Amino acid sequence: MADANITATADPAAGVVPGGASESLRHESAAMHVQGTASYIDDLPEPRGTLHLVPGLSTRAHARIVSMNLDAVRQAAGVVAVYTAADIPGENQISPVGKGDEPLLAKDLVSFYGQPLFVVAATTRGAARRAARLAQVEYEDLPAILNIAQARENGSPMVWRQMEMKRGDALAGLEHAPRRLAGRITVGGQEHFYLEGQVALARPGEEGEMHVTSSTQHPTETQHMVAHVLDRPSNLITVEVRRMGGGFGGKETQANACACLAALVADKTGRAAKMRLDRDDDMTMTGKRHDFVIDYDVGFTAEGRIVAVDMVLAARCGWSADLSGPVIDRALFHADNAYFYPDVRLRSEPLRTNTQSNTAYRGFGGPQGIVAAERVIEEIAFATGLDPLEVRLRNAYGTHDRNVTPYNMVVEDSITHDLLPALARRCDYEQRRAACREFNAASPYLRRGIAITPVKFGISFTATHYNQAGALVHVYTDGSVQVNHGGTEMGQGLHTKMVQVAMREFGLGTDQVRITATTTGKVPNTSATAASSGADLNGMAVLDAVRRIKRRLVEFAASHWNVGEDEVRFAPDGVHVGHKVIAFSHLTRQAYFARVSMSANGFYKTPKISWNGDTGQGRPFYYFAYGAACSEVVIDLLTGETKIDRVDILHDAGQSLNPALDIGQIEGGFVQGAGWLTCEELVWDEAGRLRTHAPSTYKIPACSDRPRVFNVDLLENAPNREHTIFRSKAVGEPPFVHGVSVLQAISDALASLDGYRTCPRLDAPATPEMILRTAERLRCGPPPAG
Amino acid sequence: MTGIRHDIRFYVGNEYHVLANIAPTRTLLDWLREERGLTGTKEGCNEGDCGACTVLVVRLEGERLVWRAVNACIQFVSMLDGAQVLTIEDMRAPDGTLHPVQQAMVEHHGSQCGFCTPGFVMSMVAGRKAAGLAQDERGIDDMLAGNLCRCTGYAPIVRAMRHAMQAGPDHFDAMADDMADRLRALRDGATVDITAPAGRLSIPVTADALAQTLLENPAARIVAGATDVGLWVTKGLRDLPHVVSIGQIADLRRIGPTAEGLYIGAAVTWQEARAALAEILPQPDEDVFRRIGSVQVRNAGTVCGNIANGSPIGDGPPVLIAAGAILHLRRGDVRRTIALEDFFIEYGKQDRAPGEFVEGITIPTPAPDTVIRAWKVSKRFDQDISAILAAFSLTLAPDGTISNPRIAFGGMAATPRRARLTEAALAGRRWNEATLQAAREAIMKDFTPLTDMRASAWYRSTVAANLLTRLYAECGPQADRVPTSVHAACAATGDHAHG
């Protein structure tokens, strides 16, 4: 069988390795986490003479630099060196997409408030921070474009090509639809707020070598950027990361600036150099989730079936392209969520603005597209008087017909039509919806709302070439195993899952399989740990490496002990060789003496996928991950405050590689998604300065914001139809989307204000103020601006 | 009460430290990480909001060991004289077994990226030690309000905490006597005076000595809990050439009833004052004092510091103004009292002369039929800065006539301020719809709030008026009281359905 390598093993014994794949092994670092012994980059012992770096940031959103006087910075106590763009030996350029629009240090032109202008290196971090504030920069202000409205008004250029994704004739469809409506939804951005901020430590080696420990989700790209900036070949640059204190997409490209500046200083001074950003600098400098304005025009039938959809998705991209192109594309890829649009046209507007360069963030544009899709459903529900759940079911993708996406991919695995009713039953949706309405009828100040929303999330990088991975597995003579792979650990439990793959295959326990730091020196040319793909890609690469070694060991054992190869089997109690069972370590020692290689690299590339962005044709996703969430909220009509009372989630993780870790991703993803749509609000002032640049002003959910009742279940008996690693499904991003049910539930509560006659058109984030404004509008027309 | 010392003495774990050359504003976090190599304590925000740097400060107070979780990032080392600091590195038992909290966090998958985890563990250990903490969901919310996690959604951490609360004693229980002995031995009654290159530190022992120190050094900066001053240092990078630390001055740590009401000394923290405040200013359903900062912030920040710093968004002053609090000021031997609202002159300017300091505050005992309500409105329920804080005190006669209305707001002006026109609209009137409407109109004239990142002027004005409606709904003539706040409504709902 051609794909025997990648199917679940037929041997049932291998499935019962305690803690092996499909079991809830604890996070490989859990014991270290709780003791404070898990090392993050700033915790590593500093090489002697380590310099501490702080960037000097612009205080203008858009300006020409007339002069930059850094004398006072240089003369400040503790300062060893100050570097500007002129000191960069290679390219002053860190555009991750090769667009050449992102200088590492601004030279003549400042494009946003918070752009790095120079870097200070001092003997202590405190000295560097103080010195950085002494710069005297003279600016000549240029008109700044800060948001989507201004960008459109002023004809701001796009940072990326606009995409038009279409199938059928949307305009004709709209024209002939029995009913039609149009509207607009605004969706806010989001700060990643990884608890460990951006940090990198660069150590110079001999003959131009540079070793960079970086909190990066994409070591290979960081390696390339450092190489370009220093003008060195990649073989002199090693980038390593053991773990990150959170990433969420915020360290996919945004780690590069710190790494490159640290490498620059290390290279110039010959001393180790560390840049760990202060939280305020971090939030001021780095990109965030894109905020969107989405205009929709939808035609539908009196029965609530969608006939045609036309949408324009405009995003604030910030000053450079970064990953905005693929992010906005993914918003288009998900503007259908789980629904079939017979005739459809989706267009993107990736707008350039003088703000932070928005970047990857869990979901990568997908959640924004899905929010729009759910608004469309909601509009139809209000227009037809149907329960939104009914509208969702009537429009869910079919499996045999009504199953083609706007990008012409056939949905082969849709389960939305089963999942939604299953969750509705589990959580008594109908009954609770009626109870909310009953409560609202008699409640002057508080209103309850409930909503159930699905997610269908496409799994694979839409840039096809990223869908590859490598691994390197060593088995030592004592039978201990070291697993390396190209993915990075940011808390999601990727390393744990990779250990589990090796454990299961070799029949070993946790104490025998060790994961190491991710390093470009062991596994080269890797992809970012992003797009939820970490376990899918690297798991298969690890499996490939392990099975290569196993094949050699089986061959050796069969000949050494004179049994058939099919009589050699790796099990928890040892290696079965014919009738006897030997210790794994015995086998490895014997294999060593027989000169058998016990190290292998593994490789994987996702099959079946292809995508042509120019024609809008292909199969960008290997498969879809599904789920559904039901949220019930209560809102306060006097203040606009909200509380999430209860959440029920049913999520499809395929045959989960680790149910506990996957539930952790779902719970955490939900709360992060709910935070995005409620309390998390980014505010810039008229000068383009981000005013919410610290946790004192930017509010991510706290403990008491979690749902009071929070039931999360994995869909049972649902192995992936595709041959993924042990039939699991990716679980990083899809659950983030469950937060959309909160926005819809708040909207449902607001709708009670006019007897559920009008779609409240609630924008996000639904802060108390947004909710109160929407309530006022529903009651008495729009309130004044201000 | 003897002598002057030129060093500070404290323990970190079991290690004794005598520091003679310490910058008065050196933060505990930087000192632990940069000088002691204790990197288990993390820096997440450096402003006391995320809790990743949470450590325990243990003190012997009277004969009782008191455990406090604090944010090491805004705690100055100079404030630790006489204390024992415990960090995450101390949480394992000497035999290497994990603390029950650590064990529960591992078992319940309470960590993902792990960066916030040491801080959570410290708050959880402190929560187990805290006397009288509610052993329910709200108690856990309270205990963990000062720790942010971006990965887990908190659910597994709460599960771990529920489990850990059931676990038996920890190794600190067995060490309590030794810890007490050790801390007792540090008590020498000495005044501390350190002049280091980075600045001078004075720790007077009595209020009298403090008064004298400030007379002689009117430019010195008083620091009690450093929850505000800490940010001047960590974010503002300000130099404070002379710090006078008052947190441990026994005279200023007095709290208790007097003939006039409740007296709270200048060094009494929010956490210490909370129960007494709740008793004298009872508020059904929602305790606004619980929403001042977080446990870590309330463990360090003081009631009087929240007043003395003159912030327009401090949550304490509006409530205390509505309650008619009297501020005690002292300069040398000269003492004076003023109504709290008169202390705030304009933004950044208070009625305090050079060398003068806030010695304490008295909150008068409310008349028996006084209605007191205070509400905080912010984007996030816990550990947020108010968009608006409204506090109401009024007396209702049996016939519904309002007298002595005192209404104060935070977030509505450059200082905490009374709503005089609204008070006038209520005083002597019957509490009915017409009076409510008049008050709602008056409050629009009382304030011209600003728009900022927390809320717009429109929102602030609207909510200010709406809170009058809430007051009416809660305390007015209606027969049936209905819940008027989501927080109150939520308190009435059940526990988690799952594990």
Automatic annotation (TrEMBL), chain A:
Residues 1-21 are annotated as: Disordered. Pfam families: Ald_Xan_dh_C, MoCoBD_1, MoCoBD_2. Residues 35-143 form the Aldehyde oxidase/xanthine dehydrogenase a/b hammerhead domain. SUPFAM superfamilies: CO dehydrogenase molybdoprotein N-domain-like (SSF54665), Molybdenum cofactor-binding domain (SSF56003). GO terms for molecular function: 2 iron, 2 sulfur cluster binding; iron ion binding; molybdenum ion binding; oxidoreductase activity. The keyword Cell division does not apply. Its cofactor is Mo-molybdopterin cytosine dinucleotide; Mo-molybdopterin; [2Fe-2S] cluster; FAD. Keywords: 2Fe-2S, Iron, Iron-sulfur, Metal-binding, Molybdenum, Oxidoreductase. Belongs to the xanthine dehydrogenase family. This is Xanthine dehydrogenase molybdopterin binding subunit.
TrEMBL record, chain B:
Gene3D superfamilies: 3.10.20.30, 3.30.465.10, [2Fe-2S]-binding domain, CO dehydrogenase flavoprotein, C-terminal domain, Uridine Diphospho-n-acetylenolpyruvylglucosamine Reductase, domain 2. CDD domains: fer2. Residues 6-91 form the 2Fe-2S ferredoxin-type domain. Residues 194-368 form the FAD-binding PCMH-type domain. Keywords: FAD, Flavoprotein, Iron, Metal-binding, Oxidoreductase. PANTHER family: XANTHINE DEHYDROGENASE. NCBIfam families: xanthine_xdhA (TIGR02963). This is Xanthine dehydrogenase small subunit. The gene is xdhA.
